[in-house]
Structures are given as C-alpha cells and as structure tokens.
Amino acid sequence: MSSTESTIQIRKLSPLLINQIAAGEVIERPASVLKELVENSIDAGATRITVELEQGGIERISIADDGHGIAPDQMILALTPHATSKIIESKDLDRIGTMGFRGEALASIASIARVSIRSRTADFDEGRVIAAEGETVGEPKPIGCPVGTTIEVKNLFFNTPARRKFLRTSTTEQTRCLEWLRDLAMANPSIGVRCVGDGKVKLDLPINQTPRQRVVSILGKELEEQLIEVSVDQFDDTRGILVWGLVGLPAIARATNKAQHVFLNGRTIRDRTIQHAIREAYRGLIDPGKHPTAVLMIEMSPAAVDVNVHPAKLEVRFRDQSMVHRAIYHGVKEALGRADVTPTLLQRLPGAGVDASSAIMPSASHEQVSLQLDRQVEQLVEYLEAKPRPADGSSERGPRFKQELKAVLAQSSISMPTPSFAPSTPMPTVQRVDKVLQVHSSYLISQDEHGVLIIDQHALHERVMFNKLLTRITGNGSLEQQTLLIPIMLDVSGTVIDQFDKLVSLLERIGVEATPMGPKSIGVQAVPSFLHSRNVQAEPFLAELFEKIDQDGFVPTSEEALHEVLDMMACKAAIKAGDVLSDEELNAIMQLRNETERSASCPHGRPTTVRLTIEELEKLFDRR
C-alpha cells in the first residue's frame, strides 16, 4: 500500500455536517423552508397561518400559526435531527397520514440559517422561545405568547455561501414561495392563509372556505365559469380512490402544465401517471402542444401509497397505478363529456388571454365598447380570412361576405327584445331553427340557445369520420379491407423495414395488408374499404402513412399511434373547404354534429365550432 493510500481514513461526520447534507436534500431555496414549516403548521391543527417574507425569503421567513404548539420540554427535541411526533415504528411508514414525518426539517434548516422558535400549548400560561444557529442550540426561555407556534428563519445559507450564490433574485424566490403557499392553501380550504411580502399583502384567504371557493380564490374568479367539476367515488372500506376537482374548458389550456395542481391526501404531488391520465382525457379537445388547467384532490388509504420515495415528498408510489390512471382518466373525460366545450368568439380571436370573456368590461364607456366591438368585427373577418379558401380560388371574402355574415347576425338578433336585465341575469333562450347557411363553401352558420354558431365544415366532418373509424376498430378489432388487383409498390426508409414486425398489427387494424419487398420497398395488397368509399386515392395516402411512421417518436404499438393514423384517414376522407353542400347534406352534417361525441373540436384539438354569444351580439348591435 502506498503512503498516499495509507492516509485515507474513514471518519465520522460532525452533527453540523450531517444536518447540512440533509438540508441539501430537503432545502433548496426559501420556498423549501416555507413548504416544510407550513406543513408542520397544518399537522399542528392550525386554523390560521400567517407568512411574512423579506427579500423573497432569503433574508427572513416567518411562519405563525394557531395550532396546538410545542410543550416546553419538547422545544430542544424539535431541533434535534430525526426527532418527530409523527411516526414511532417502522410499520408507520406504510400508513403515513401527516404532511411531515422525517424529523429532519427544523434541524436541517437550523444548520444553514438562524432560527428562532416561539411556541405555547394550551396547557401552559406562558410559552417558550429557543434560538439555533449552525450547530449551536440555545436553552428555551419563558416568553409571553398566544397558543400556537411562530418560527422565524433568517439569513438562509449564511454559512454555506456556495449554495447561497445559486439563489435567484428576491422577486423570483418570492414567486416560488407564493406558488408553494397557494398549493398548500388550495389543499386545505378550511385554513385561513395570509402572506405579506416586503410589507405588501400577497395572499389573504379566509378560513372555512369550500374547496371550490378556495380554488376559485386562487386561480381567479374570472375562470369560475370555465371550470368543470370532476367527481369520482370508487372507495370501498380501505381500498379504492376518491377524487374531487375542477378542470378547465379546452379554451383555457396553457402552454405549460403549471396550471395543473394535484393533491394526494392533502399533499402536493407531481405524478406522471396522473398527468398522462389528464392529458389523455383531453385528447382531441386541445392542441397536443397545450396543457389543460386542472385541480384534483385525491384521497386514498395511506396504506395504498408510498410517500417516502422523495426527500421533498413530491413524488409518490401507488400500490395500484393502473387503478389510479383509470379513475382520473374516466372521471375527467366524463366531466368534459357533460360540459359544453364550444369556445366563444372572443376566446378564439388573436391575442385573447385566459380571461377572454372579460375583454369588454361592463364598466367601460359606450365609446370604448363601440371601439372594441368594431375591432372585434374586423378580427372575426381576419380570423376567417386566414382559413383555407376554396380550391378554385374564385371566392373572395369581400363586401358580400360581410353582408352575408351581418345578415345572419341581424336575423339572430332581431327576434330578441331590447334587454332590460342586468349582465348577471341568465341569458334568454333563442328558439332553435333547422336552417343552416353555408358561407363561401367552407363555413356553416347556425344558431343554438346561446347564440350564433360558426362551423368549419371540414373540421366538423373530420371529427365525425374519426369517431366512426375509432368505433369500428373498437367493435370489430380492425377496418374492412379491399383487395387490390395489382399491388401498390412503395419506396420506404430502412427504418420502416427494420420495425415492420411491430407495424403489422397497426396496419392490420386500419385495414392495410402489406409485405416487405426488398431493403427499401413495400408491396401493399389491400387497403381500407373506407378510403375507397370516400374517393381517397390509396397510393398518396399510403406514401404519407409510411412517412408518418418513419418520424421520430412514432411508437407503432401505442394507442397514440393508432389515433394519429385514424386522424390522418379522417382528414383525407372528410369534406373539404370549398365543397358545395346541398340542403340535405347541410342538414345531415348538422344532425351528425348533434350525435357525435366531442364534436366541438377536430381530432387534432382545433375547434370545429365557434360561438358568438347572444351577449356579444347585443353589444355588436348597440343593444346592451
């Protein structure tokens, strides 16, 4: 052994270093401190929690609650590593029912910050205060204070400057603190939560709100009418799952999944199984690149889930992952199926935000409203101008188009009396009519009880075709085939040939019979009868199909792949922009719209229908 090797020794780490290593797993930034301490307040039975932040929590975080407090003889233990009141023996780890349980949060925080704890229980006339800094823990001292606990954390990472330099600006750190606090408040609507940041009130939620009131208070009252209730009850004795929540209409889907909040037994979690279930429930209702708004409160037996798999307790492990996925997927899908998901005109216009319905404020002056409405009419024209024109290019969306649209809008509004009701009064009912107007051989104009419907004929028929194809495959296992007299030879990539064994099942399900004929060619002996019946040329379709299969990320054995291919088939088979429809065809497609599930959007998630509401119509014609 060399002299260098002989100097390497195994040493026992100091308590301070042990705690700092533990802090590295649990405490990343001020938001981590806030989360751990607020969770302790929740476990302590608090009805009110007050948070104060200075410089985003970097310089100071104060958490005050009215919970049951800490007894005088427990004060030092509260700052001792791996000391906790929440578990006693190893089997308790299989049924954890509290927010915190590791017993290392306070000790870890004290190792990288200056901590003061002031607390009193109802059994004592006075409280105790204790201070800790690094590895130094003081003695508890008497102090006058109300029942409950106040913990103050100052100068985070003061003795670990390498970690302090990785913190963001105070504004960013405050934002992250507020995100955690809102999540914790959302999961505990009975607890009043107040937060003051640098002297300004950032959050102020009263006690004893209902779950819906709390969600709306945090997400914003402007979204209340665009949230759909989800309810699942599959709980039996100590098994199963309960779910309550609110999910957003497709119109308020976001570019990121930050608007998704999932809670398990009151704990914020981030779980891919649940995220996938939500995404699948919205399949075909939103653009694949967008994420639904969702708040889901899940309750399960603590024995059915392991929460001890992540230091910050963000990830969990379900005993029955498939059951959880099914419950969330069907619960959200059924809720969406009961709702009217047709977007309004204002929600679809360029630049419309989440709160599109409030683009015209009731308090605006008549002149302001008129200017806004003039612009909305122009935006409607611009929106339709951007759509595909008829194939022959003969149609021009000029004055005649505006006259036709105006005539339809006027016809729908003439029957309406001049309103004398307040904006909060329920919308009056319009008598349904069978008449449908085709505009520029591309759009259908009709009405329902809520206003005027503007329908993209191709997108609507594409949804109808897709649902029919999916139903046939679900019922029969595959689509009917038509054998070709002469096989179609196609040039394909080597990748397609290499994974052909995996493609066979997918091809058979959609009615395609094909065989590799060389290193880069495929012979097709049969094609779906459906395509022939819709006058779709087989060879271009097949060439596009194999090009899609060759794309990165295409997994031929997945249901997503089947949906993608059916989307393509439906698009090819649907009527096109520019197709002139007879009265019988117009009536037929409107009837199909009423009978088709998720007819408000095409399989790609784009809207088939936009509604111009009665309220918007009245404003357009200066009747409101």
Description of the structure:
The chain has 624 residues and is α+β, with helices and mostly antiparallel strands. The chain has 3 domains: 15-205, 2-Layer Sandwich (Heat Shock Protein 90); 211-341, Ribosomal Protein S5, domain 2; 342-624, no CATH class. Helices cover 36% and strands 21% of the residues. The protein contains 21 helices and 23 strands. Strands 1, 2, 3, 4, 5, 6, 7, 8 and 9 form a 9-stranded mixed β-sheet that branches. It has a 5-stranded mixed β-sheet with strand order 10-11-14-12-13, sandwiched between helices. A hairpin with a 2-residue loop joins strand 8 (192-197) and strand 9 (200-205). The longest helix is centred in the middle third of the chain and has 20 residues, at 366-385. It is elongated. Residues 353-375, 390-396 and 408-433 have low confidence and may be disordered.
Summarize the model shown.
The chain has 624 residues and is of the alpha+beta class.
Rg (C-alpha, Å): 31 Å
How many structural units, i.e. domains? 3
Mean pLDDT: 83
Amount of helix = 25-40%
Q: Uncertain spans, ≥5 residues at pLDDT below 50? A: 353-375, 390-396, 408-433
Binned strand content: 15-25%
Q: How many helix segments?
A: 21
Decide which structural class fits the backbone. alpha+beta
Give the biggest sheet: 9 strands, mixed
Shape: elongated
Please describe the structure with a list of short key phrases separated by commas or semicolons:
624 residues, Heat Shock Protein 90, nine-stranded mixed sheet, five-stranded mixed sheet, 21% strand
Question: Topology, please?
Answer:
Elements: H1 3-6, H2 15-26, H3 30-43, E1 48-54, E2 60-65, H4 75-78, H5 105-111, E3 114-120, E4 127-133, E5 136-137, E6 141-143, E7 148-154, H6 161-164, H7 170-187, E8 192-197, E9 200-205, H8 211-219, E10 227-236, E11 239-248, E12 260-264, E13 267-269, H9 272-281, E14 294-299, E15 305-306, E16 317-318, H10 321-338, H11 345-348, H12 366-385, H13 399-414, E17 437-439, E18 443-448, E19 451-456, H14 457-476, E20 481-491, H15 494-498, H16 500-509, E21 513-518, E22 521-528, H17 529-533, H18 538-549, H19 559-573, H20 583-595, E23 609-613, H21 614-620
Parallel strand pairs: 1-8, 12-14
Antiparallel strand pairs: 1-2, 2-7, 3-4, 3-7, 4-5, 4-6, 8-9, 10-11, 11-14, 12-13, 15-16, 17-18, 18-19, 19-23, 20-22, 21-22
